[in-house]
Design brief:
- The protein is α+β, with helices and mostly antiparallel strands.
- The relative contact order is 0.23.
- Helix 1 (3-15) packs antiparallel against helix 3.
- Helices cover 42% and strands 25% of the residues.
- Strands 1-2-3 form a three-stranded mixed β-sheet.
- The protein contains three helices and three strands; from the N terminus they run H-E-E-H-H-E.
Length: 79
């Protein structure tokens, strides 16, 4: 498992009620990585946050972590 994927899982598991249901799919295309985050339906609001603030913060942290390897990261939250 990549370090970025583990970071995403750790971030999401820290804020949800059901951390065992958190998973992420990874798709690579050259220097771009697209992560699709899956959480329990009842935890969706916690991951997104008010006005999307939690989701935005997760994306900022992931982009900062990817910069050290000159990668581009996109984080999608699956419904």
């Amino acid at each position: 498992m990549s370090d970025l994927k583990q970071l995403l899982l750790d971030l999401a598991r820290a804020i949800v009620d059901y951390p065992d249901q958190v998973t992420a799919d990874e798709a690579r295309d050259g220097d771009e990585i697209v992560f699709t985050l899956h959480v329990a339906e009842s935890d969706m609001g916690k991951v997104i946050g008010r006005q999307g603030k939690n989701a935005k913060c997760i994306r900022i942290v992931m982009k900062a972590a990817a910069m050290k390897d000159d990668l581009k990261v996109t984080v999608d939250i699956a419904e």
